[in-house]
Every structure is written in C-alpha cells, then in structure tokens.
User: Which sequence fits this backbone?
C-alpha cells in the first residue's frame, strides 16, 4: 500500500503525518528528534527513501540527522557543515537541505546561517564548503533579514549541472555557472525596500 508522508519541523522536534493514497485519514507520529530544533526535513527518494533533517541544539550546535526507516530512528552525522579555519562566518543554523541531481543520489546541498553553501558527496556523512558564497567579494556589505543572514533557498538547474541559484536574506538572489565556485548577484529589476519605501 502506498503511503503519503508529510513532515512537520518545529523548535521542539519533528512530527510525521502518514496517510494512504486517498489521504482521507491521517496518523500523527510521536515526536521525533526531541530536544532538537528542526529547521527542515528532506524526503529523498532518488535511490532509496532517506530522510535528512537540518537540526540545531543549544549544546551540540547545528548538524544533520539521517533516518533510513521513515523517521522511526535517527542517526546524528559526526561531520556536519562547518566553515573553514580562519573564516569570519559562524554556523548558527542549517536552514535547508536539498537533493543534488537525480543521477547523483549521493549528492546533497545545505544552506546555512551565517550564509553558506555546502555540498555532501556521500549522503550527508561529510560536507564541503563551497566558498563562492562565504568568500564572496561583496560579503562585507551583506546584511541579514529578520531570520539572520541565512541562505534559505537552493535551486539546481536540471539542464545545466554547473548552474546553481541561491536566495539569501536579505541579500537577494545569486547565481553560479561553475558549480558553486563563484556567484554573481542576479537582483536586477528587483526593488530595494528601505524602511517601507522603495
């Protein structure tokens, strides 16, 4: 029987809603990841169904948790996203985790606060900083929005594996055409609002 799965991310853990294809009746799971602030859960079905949770804890900090049994059990990854030595950026939160290309099920991307873009090439076990964001030439001018200086959106071009779009609050939209090595602002035509006025 096919199952519909919906994840709910909260500051006190995660909940999973399950239903059959008719979606008339739902069951709610017990709280998962208790004690963790859950920002995002990716349901990745490219090879096998795996859940990746972007989580944070006031003691342990931000990291990634992985479930291979639809949220029944979770495994904390030892090596989560981290900025390089000497970086002025501080990892405060992992905002989002997105899947890489369909033909590369081992690849994941993560966006963080402070604004950073990371890639995993081994299903979330290890992460590499893509410094095109964290060392951007205009970074000193960036100011965060209400949620901080967060890279909250990552879009991959399915027809061009080297093209990546990111959204950063309140910086705007940037695009890479070389797989994340460099990024260029793509905000032309977007109004700048200052204190309620354009």
Assistant:
């Amino acid at each position: 029987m096919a199952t519909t799965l919906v994840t709910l991310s909260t500051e006190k853990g995660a909940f999973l809603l399950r239903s059959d294809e008719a979606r008339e009746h739902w069951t709610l799971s017990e709280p998962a990841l208790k004690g963790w602030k859950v920002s995002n859960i990716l349901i990745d079905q490219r090879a096998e169904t795996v859940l990746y949770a972007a989580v944070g804890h006031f003691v342990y900090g931000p990291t990634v948790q992985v479930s291979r049994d639809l949220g029944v059990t979770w495994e904390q990854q030892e090596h989560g996203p981290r900025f390089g030595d000497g970086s002025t950026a501080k990892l405060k939160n992992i905002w989002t985790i997105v899947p890489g290309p369909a033909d590369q099920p081992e690849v994941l991307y993560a966006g963080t606060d402070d604004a950073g873009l990371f890639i995993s090439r081994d299903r979330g076990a290890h992460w590499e900083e893509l410094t095109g964001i964290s060392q951007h030439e205009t970074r000193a001018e960036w100011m965060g929005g209400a949620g901080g200086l967060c890279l909250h959106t990552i879009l991959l071009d399915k027809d061009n594996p080297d093209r990546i779009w990111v959204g950063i609050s309140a910086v705007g939209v940037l695009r890479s055409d070389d797989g994340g090595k460099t990024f260029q602002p793509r905000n032309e035509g977007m109004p700048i609002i200052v204190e309620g006025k354009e």
Q: What stands out?
A: The longest strand covers residues 37-44. The helical segments are 131-134. The two ends are 53 Å apart (CA to CA).
